[in-house]
Specification:
homodimer, about 425 residues, alpha/beta, nicotinate phosphoribosyltransferase, TIM Barrel, 2 domains, 16 helices
Chain lengths: ~425, ~425
C-alpha cells in the first residue's frame, strides 16, 4: 500500500521526527470515537481488517519518494530521511477490538505502538478506513433491527463515494447484519452473498412489459425478481403473476410502499402465487422500515441503498487518533472541547458497564483490545465475516462508559505537569 | 478496470440481453441529476475522467468469470455468454459535458451509446464516480464562494469514505476551486498542490510547546504553520511568535475562531510578525466561512475537512442513468415521481436559459455534451485540472432549464404508445 495515501503533514512530521533524532522513540497512538452521531446509542466496529492490511503493506516506492523530494515542504530534509523512507516498513504493534464488536464513545478501539514516524504516518488512513466502515456497519445494524427479522439487502454502490467505497461499504453492511449486497466485487473479494433483481431498462428494451417479463424468466428462472413499476405498478404485478412458472417475487421501487405492497400481495395471492415474495426499495432508512414493519406491510425483503451506503443522516463522525504515550511518558492535548486522555489504555467490558482504564489494570470480564500485529508481523489470523456478524447480533444498545480511577488520576497528573 | 465493480443485476441483465439475442442492439443511456440537493442552485460537474478511464479499461478476467459462473443467478446462462465476457470491451460512444461545467437538474451530463450490454454494465460505476465528485466539487465551489477571495484548502481525507474517496474528493475539491489538498496521493497522481501544517502529536512529542515549535521551524523553515491549540491557544500564538525566523503563520483548530483569530492577529502584530498568516479549521462549512468573512475575521486561509470530503449536508443526490433509445426507438419509464425523458438529447446553453432538446436539434450557443469516446477509442484529449477549474469559476447560480418543443412532443408520443 502506498505511503502517499495520507495527509502531507503526517509525512512532514515523520521527516521532522527523523531530523530531530526522534525516529526511534516508542510512541503509542489510540483511535477512538469522540461522540456518537445523533440517534446512535452504539456503534458496530468495522474496517479493522483494511487497517491491518494497510499497515502490513505500507511502503514508499522510488517514484513516490522522488515526488516527495520535489515538494517545497521537504526542502530542508536531507538524504538520510529519504534512505529511511526507502526501507520504511511498519515494525510496531497493533491492538484492536474485533470487528462486529459494539463500541461506544470514548473507547479506544485501535491502538498502535511503534517508533514515532511509524505511528504518525498511518493516522489518516486508519481514521478513514475505520470511521467509514463503522458508520455503515452501524447504520446496517439499525436497519436490520428495525426490519424485525425480515431480510435487508445492501443496494447502495451507485450512491457510494466511489466504487471502492461501495465495495467496502458492502462489507461493512454485511458485518452489520445485512444478508448480502448487490456489489459483485464485494462478493468476489469477500465472499459476501450477492443479490440482484432486474432493470427498468430491461423492461424498456422489449416492446411490452409482458414480453420483457417472459424473457426475463427464461434467464433467471426461479430466482426472477420482477421490477413492476416501470409503467404502472398494479399492471406490472399482474403481468408478473401471469408470466407463469415459479419466480422469487416482485420488487416495488417507488410510490407508497405500504399500499403498494398490500395491493401486490393481494394480486399475487389471487393469482395463486402465494409463494412469490415482495421486495421493497426506494429511499428506505431504519425509520421508514420500522414504520412499514409496524404497519404490517407484507414486505419480505428490504433493499436499501443511498441511506446505508452513505450513512446519510451521519456521513461522518468525530473519530480521533491521538498520541497517548511517548517513551513511557503519558501525553494528552487539552484544546477546548477537544481534550484527549493520556496513557496506554484498555477497554474492560463488564456485565453492565464498560470501563476505560490503563492497560496495566485488570478487571473481570472481557478486554476489548487484542493484539493483532506484533513487531510488524500479524499474530492474529484473519477472521471470517460470519464471526464478525455474530458479534454484531443483538447489540446491547446504550451502555455506560466509565473511566478507571487510575486513568482519572493519570489525566490530573498530566494536566498538572503541563500547567 | 474489473467489470465486477457493478451491481449484480447489471450483469444478469447483460446475460439476459445476450441470451435474448439483443446483445447487438444499439442503446443509448443518459446520466442526469434528477433534483438538486437542498441549498444548491447549481452543480459543478466532476468525475468524468474517471468514467472515461473506467470505460476504456473495462474487462473481465478469467478468475472473475469463474466466480460469476458459480453464482446461482447465472445458472441458466450458457457458455456463449462467458465467451462473450472474455473478450468484452467497451466499443461504444461516450458524450459528456466537460468537468467544471456548472450543470442543473434534469440535464443529461453523460451519454453512452453502445451495444445494449456495454451500455448497461457501466451504470453503477458511472453513477458512483460522477455523483460523488460532483457533490464534492459543488460543495467546494460554495465554500470558495463564501470565502470571498481567501484561500480554501481541502483537508478531509480522514473523513472521506475510504482513502480512495479522499484522493478523488481532493480532485473534485480542486476542480471546485480549492487551492489544494492535504492528500499526498492526490498531489502525486493528479498534480494538485499539497498543503500541510503540523500535528498535535508533534507538540506532545517534545517536553514543551516552545521546544516543539523551535524544532518544527528547523524542519519546515519559512513554510512552518504552528498548530497553536494543543494546550492553550493564546500561549501557543505567543510561543509561535517568539520562536524567531520567518514562518508561514499559525493554525487555529478549535474554539471560537472569530475571537481567537482576532487575538492571534493582535499577538502576532504586537510581536512584529505582521506577515505571519492565520489559518482556521474545525468543522467549517460555507455558512460558517461566510459568517467569519462577514465579521471581518483576520483569517487568511480556511482548512476544510469533514463537511467538504463527505458533502456533509448532502452526502448523496438523486442521479439517474436511463435508457432513452434502443434500436432507434425512444424509451422512457413512467414510475410515479420517477419518470424519465425519452430520446437522445443535448443541452443547449443559451445566454439566459438552458434548453434540453433532442440531439438532432440546433440552437445558438454552446452544446454541453461533446464526444469523448467514439467506437471505443478516446477522441478527446485528457484535459488539465486547471482548465476544469477555470470553467467552475463564478458559476452562474440558478438558471432556468426548459425542454424543447420537439422533446415535449416526443415524450407525449412515447406515453401514448405505452398506454
Amino acid at each position: 500500500m502506498t505511503g502517499l495515501l495520507t495527509d502531507l503533514y503526517e509525512l512532514t512530521m515523520a521527516a521532522g521526527y527523523f531530523q530531530a533524532g526522534k525516529a526511534g522513540e516508542q510512541a503509542t497512538f489510540e483511535l477512538s470515537i469522540r461522540r456518537l452521531p445523533a440517534d446512535r446509542s452504539y456503534l458496530i466496529l468495522a474496517g479493522v481488517e483494511q487497517a491491518i492490511e494497510y499497515l502490513l503493506g505500507l511502503e514508499f516506492q522510488e517514484p513516490e519518494i522522488n515526488y516527495l523530494r520535489g515538494l517545497s515542504a521537504f526542502r530542508s530534509v536531507g538524504d538520510p530521511f529519504w534512505d529511511y523512507l526507502r526501507t520504511f516498513r511498519f515494525t510496531g504493534d497493533l491492538w484492536a477490538a474485533p470487528e462486529g464488536t459494539p463500541v461506544y464513545a470514548g473507547e479506544p478501539v485501535v491502538r498502535v505502538t511503534a517508533p514515532l514516524p511509524e505511528g504518525q504516518i498511518p493516522e489518516t488512513y486508519l481514521l478513514a478506513a475505520i470511521t467509514f466502515q463503522t458508520l455503515v456497519a452501524t447504520k446496517a445494524s439499525r436497519m436490520v433491527g428495525a426490519a424485525g427479522g425480515r431480510a435487508v439487502v445492501e443496494f447502495g454502490t451507485r450512491r457510494a463515494h466511489t466504487a471502492e467505497a461501495g465495495v467496502l461499504g458492502a462489507r461493512a453492511a454485511y458485518i452489520g447484519g445485512c444478508i448480502g449486497t448487490s456489489n459483485v466485487e464485494a462478493g468476489y473479494r469477500f465472499g459476501i452473498p450477492v443479490y440482484g433483481t432486474s432493470a427498468h431498462s430491461w423492461v424498456l428494451a422489449f416492446p411490452s412489459e409482458r414480453e420483457a417479463f417472459a424473457r426475463l424468466h427464461e434467464v433467471l428462472g426461479e430466482g426472477t425478481v420482477y421490477l413492476v413499476d416501470t409503467y404502472d405498478t398494479e399492471q406490472g404485478v399482474r403481468s408478473a403473476a401471469a408470466t407463469g412458472g415459479r419466480f422469487w417475487g416482485v420488487r416495488l421501487d417507488s410510490g407508497d410502499l405500504l399500499a403498494e405492497s398490500r395491493r401486490a400481495r393481494a394480486i399475487l395471492d389471487e393469482a395463486g402465487c402465494r409463494e412469490a415474495r415482495i421486495m421493497a426499495s426506494g429511499d428506505l432508512n431504519e425509520h421508514r422500515i420500522g414504520e412499514l414493519v409496524r404497519a404490517g406491510a407484507p414486505i419480505d425483503t428490504f433493499g436499501v441503498g443511498t441511506e446505508l451506503a452513505t450513512s446519510a443522516d451521519a456521513p461522518s463522525m468525530g473519530s480521533i487518533y491521538k498520541l497517548v504515550e511517548i517513551e513511557s511518558r503519558p501525553a494528552a492535548k487539552f484544546s477546548p472541547e477537544k481534550a484527549s486522555w493520556p496513557g496506554i489504555k484498555q477497554v474492560f467490558r463488564l456485565a453492565d458497564v464498560d470501563i476505560v482504564g490503563l492497560a496495566t489494570e485488570t478487571y473481570p470480564g472481557t478486554s476489548l483490545l487484542e493484539p493483532v500485529i506484533q513487531g510488524g508481523r500479524r499474530v492474529r489470523e484473519k477472521e471470517s465475516l460470519e464471526a464478525m456478524r455474530r458479534r454484531a447480533e443483538r447489540p446491547a444498545g446504550g451502555r455506560p462508559v466509565m473511566h478507571s480511577r487510575a486513568l482519572e488520576e493519570l489525566v490530573r497528573a498530566v494536566r498538572r505537569g503541563v500547567s
